Amino acid sequence: MIASLSGLTTAFVATTIDYGAIMPMLIIFATAMIGVLVEAFAPRSQRYVVQVSVALLGLLGALGAVIVGLDHQGSTLAGAVVMDGPALFLQGTIVVLAALSILAMAERFDGVGADAFTAQGAATPGSAQEAAAVRAGATTTEVFPLTMLAVGGMMLFPAAGDLLTMFVALEVLSLPLYILSGLARRRRLLSQEASLKYFLLGAFSSAFFLFGSALLYGYSGSLDLSVIAQAISTRSGMDGLLVPGVLLVLVGLLFKIGAVPFHSWTPDVYQGAPTPVTGFMAACTKVAAFGAILRFIYVGVAGSRWDWTAGLWAVAILTMVIGAVLAITQTDIKRLLAYSSIAHAGFVLTGVLAFDKVGISSVLFYLVAYGFSTIAAFAIVSMVRDDGSEATHLSQWAGLGKNHPVVAGAFAFLLLAFAGIPLTSGFTAKFAVFSAAVAHGATVLAVVGVLSSAIAAFVYVRIIVLMYFSEPAGESVHAVSPSIATTLAVSIGVLMTLILGVAPSPLLDLAARSSLFLR
Amino acid sequence: MSSFPWLTTIGLIPLVGALVVAFLPASLADRAKQIALGFSIVALLFTVAAALQFKLGSNLQFQFQEQHSWIGQFGVSYALGVDGIALVLIVMAAILVPVCVLAAWNDVPEIGKRQQTYFALMLVLETFMIGVFSATDVFLFYVFFEAMLIPVYFLIGSFGGSRRQYAAVKFLLFSLLGGLVMLVAVIALYHYGPGGTDGFLVQKLTGLKLDQTPGRLMFLGFFFAFAIKAPMWPVHTWLPDAATEARPATAVLLVGVLDKVGTYGMIRFCLQLFPEASKWATPAIIVLAVISVIYGALLAIGQTDIMRLIAYTSVSHFGFIVLGIFAMTSAGTAGSALYMVNHGFTTAALFLVAGMLIHRRGSKRIPDYGGWQRVTPVLAGVFLISGLSGLALPGMNSFISEFLVLLGTFQRYRVAAVIAALGIILASLYILLMYQRMMTGPKPDAAAGTPDLSHREKWVVAPLIAAFIVLGFYPKPALDVINPAVARTLQYVGVTDPVATHPAAAEGAVK
Fold this sequence. Notes:
The complex is a heterodimer of chains A (519) and B (511). Helix content of chain A is 71%, strand content 3%. Chain A is mainly α. In chain A, strands 4-3-5 form a 3-stranded antiparallel sheet, with no helix packed on it. Chain B contains 21 helices and 2 strands. Chain B has a two-stranded antiparallel sheet with strand order 1-2. In chain B, helix 12 (260-273) packs parallel to helix 21 (476-493) and helix 14 (306-327) runs antiparallel to helix 15 (330-361). The chains are: A mainly alpha (519), B mainly alpha (511). At the A-B interface, helix 17, helix 18, helix 19 and helix 21 of A face helix 5, helix 6 and helix 7 of B.
């Protein structure tokens, strides 16, 4: 299909497909399809176990395929998919982080199905239909195939060689997320509101992306990123198509990472969505979207950067400052982490704006580091309960350190990582992006970055104060003991946060070796 | 030079101790403090053993060097080494930690996790303190510099007084802000340096040909962090809060050791790496230092809270130290280095003895005392001795260092030295007034029957008073170690002492 688009005027030539290269994505999509079949044919009582196992096995297979795929680098499917260092690195990252997210989503606590999700997504909150579904023991095991579909889209996103494939990937990853956001078991109205907001704003941003792609097609006569790059280097004039095109595509991509001023959905969706889904979005969506931004900018439009970097600088500065400042005023832990994720997106953007190989590798490292920490953080949020439902109000976290030293300790450690204290992955990651920025003429961004870090540190420190230095708010708030799945997700997240802080060399090395885009 | 990794060993011992103390089985939980004390004493013994092997005539800047690649991609090495200044500070820290553990013996009386955490945090802090003074890689120094904040933050926030939350957060935010600003300078410095996989080594970054503007900006980035840490006026405001809310032992480690990282950093990094910028900034820094001296002393006189009073005396003393460093004469800078050690012991004695008083009376307010020398004569005696050390009485340790600082400053900045000398007079005011209000007067009825110093408390005070007297009468060993290091640093800066001339001919040397 893509081949025919890029070659309308010439005779049809069957494209060669390197199956080894696209195998990771094929496995994920196949897993998703199997999941759909399981949903249709497996008996209700067994669906949960089967779905979780299928999803995890699929992810494991995809990880293996990514490793095998190291030998299959190159452009395939007529340039629609480009498997190069960054693409493979990010696909591997997405697969691993998705596996942790699946583990967190699979948490049942004492119930029959995944605890975070409603019994029946289609039932109106509080209706008889819903009550019936609960009585019947229904569980939304659809979340697992939906997640796999999103993962597939995410894997394609940073590997897309042309804007149309990128758009398809964007939609494939977004649509399941819109649904997943609306499936919370508790506070369902908030969840559905989040879903609707995310969908509407997401649709707008997709439209921006598409419009930008059309303008770039008008400019260069192709949607292929490398052709666009070529056109920029050879053609003069027609900036009226180029610059708005670039900016509009960037709007669509910056929306996904939650950069200011396209961030307004983030707190609402992060708050409303089921907590493990929030963790999944915060980690994996960011990885995928930053991958796409890197490819779009570095492969496609870097040549014209003098025309639009000022705008991206402004976005990066606003994102860091506003994310950090607004985080101060939050009283809900999920909204707070949402604003924190906005600030982090700003930090990553400073690495993107280095316009250098070092910038790419620093962004890759940052995404891994942040992904592990954030999934663990949201998994912990889902464990802290007040009378059965999540205790998301900050005041409910008071004194948690006294009653649950391990949970609070892990969370405090993650917060220190978010704050960028040395010997955590957060510090190494920040150092990497700021170093790249300073080395390539973006010292101002680094200065704004450290000042925002100082502001953000106040936010994180305040939570530690609450957990450790305040008296418990009430007896009813407690951390429920998680199953092995969540324990694993949290432990791996915390452990990676430590390892990447103390011995980051291997991953930095891998990121450096993976930082070359095929053009 | 032996190849035994002295510094790593000294740093590891408390860390192992911290882990042991933190994860003691319940059956041994009542032995937590003894174990903590044991580990800190072993660390001290190793420190002394290392110090005895320190070669005076060495022509290397750093001894006991260790170097391993840590994060090659960033140019970071795990590189340790000490010169004389770092060595005396490490020895001071190693002495103060067991003293503080002993002083903190009953801070958390209930046996269990909380007590174990308290002592474990102190030991972790010792590891970081040794690391920060012995790091010869700028990045590694920064890591210790920031990581150090976390144990202190928990020591204040979890175990401090009633406004501990406020004090802990204020402390952490001030320090983090300074540290993060420094981070930009650290990053930039690497890119101006030779780069490579060990490009953060101090040796590689010394003597760079920096352009004027970036050199000065980077200097300011470092200096800002160190000025907050030191703390200098006007970024000192976190110190009185932190000192008064922390437990006395924590306050000692905070003011006595941690804050020295600021002044140590000025010598090691500001002067050595940015000579041009240091000379450029000197006039402004001298002014700030003199303000710190006078302002800290004046505010100390006005305090009614003992701990805050001692904290403000430290602001004043840090003013002297900075003054001596930036006088950039061998007497001034050596005096400052010695002052750092002396101030550590003096402040420790003041805070700990004050802590003993507060423990007995249950109040930090000076007006709540009076006539205590009639109730607890020994306690009053050691308080007086500590105070006399604080006001730099001749024969006490501080006298020599303060004298050297003023002498060294006078060689170059006469007006500053004269104004700063007023600080000595103010020092006798704040110390003696405090003593008078608390100790003299009619015998207080309420305090009747208050016990005098216990055996444990005597063991706390004895090493400190011994240090006062030894360093007061025979500072030569310390100065012998410090002087070559200072000479080398001043050589990096490229300044020589002004030639002593007849006063009438020295008009031009004033500024």
